[in-house]
Design goal:
CATH architecture: 3-Layer(aba) Sandwich
Largest sheet: 7 strands, mixed
CATH topology: Rossmann fold
Structural class: alpha/beta
Number of helices: 6
Order of helices and strands: EHEHEHEHEEHHE
Radius of gyration: 16 Å
Number of strands: 7
CATH superfamily: LmbE-like
Strand content: 15-25%
């Protein structure tokens, strides 16, 4: 059994980018944890009802995915900055040290949303082998409506080189995504069920399967 942690800045990132892969890990007997760095808060203008409904969505998605434990850092959404990293690194470090994940899935380093980029920076600070010897794989995932809208700077663009066949799990991934009803829209809105399927089909065709999720593998330690 492997220990896996999926890091998202916002609830729905994890289903969009890693949903099928999470289900596959769970089916294989792996223990999967989920770390969310931001939250919607009443103090930031969200209604009590919306905060409660979002928490219910998170709990339901976690259950449907088979997540073992959910961690939430509760930084205000859309407000992460370089100063946030000062406290976030220590919080992420503690979670990693407690969980001891072998595999880490993290948001892409150049996504359009700044919350994604600062989350990436904090997570990468917690993957140094001399402090976190249990980490063997670090993979970045793509998140529809953020990865594809980032500036395509050659040295920083998302470069998929690791693919997971989710052909038998895609329909379930799509059903779980429907839990985030307020995050979905009709095509050509980027987070549409049609676009989610289009990306899975495209990634699958790249490697000769029906549906796939793509990742950029940035660390692999064989030991």
């Amino acid at each position: 059994m492997k220990k896996v942690i999926v890091v998202s800045a916002h609830p729905d990132d994890e289903v969009l980018g890693v949903g099928g892969t999470i289900l596959k890990h769970v089916n294989q007997g792996d223990e999967v944890f989920w770390l969310i760095t931001t939250s919607i808060l009443e103090s930031e203008g969200f209604t009590k009802e919306r905060v409660k409904s979002r928490q219910k969505e998170i709990e339901r998605v976690g259950k449907e995915l088979g997540i073992s434990e959910i961690f939430s850092l509760e930084y205000p959404t859309m407000k992460l900055s370089s100063s946030s990293i000062i406290t976030m690194v220590s919080k992420v470090s503690k979670i990693f040290s407690d969980v001891k994940p072998e595999i880490i899935y993290c948001l892409n380093r150049t996504d359009a949303h700044s919350d994604h980029r600062f989350t990436f920076d904090a997570v990468m600070a917690c993957t140094k082998s001399f402090r976190y010897p249990f980490v063997k794989q670090v993979l970045l995932y793509e998140c529809i409506s953020e990865t594809e809208f980032a500036p395509a700077i050659p040295e920083r663009v998302f470069q998929p080189n690791y693919f997971v066949d989710i052909s038998g799990l895609f329909d379930r991934k799509k059903e779980i995504m429907k839990i985030y009803e307020s995050e979905l829209g009709e095509h050509p809105f980027p987070r549409s069920l049609r676009n989610i399927e289009a990306l899975a089909v495209h990634r699958g065709a790249t490697v000769g399967v029906e549906y796939a999720e793509a990742f950029q593998l940035i660390k692999y330690i064989d030991k």
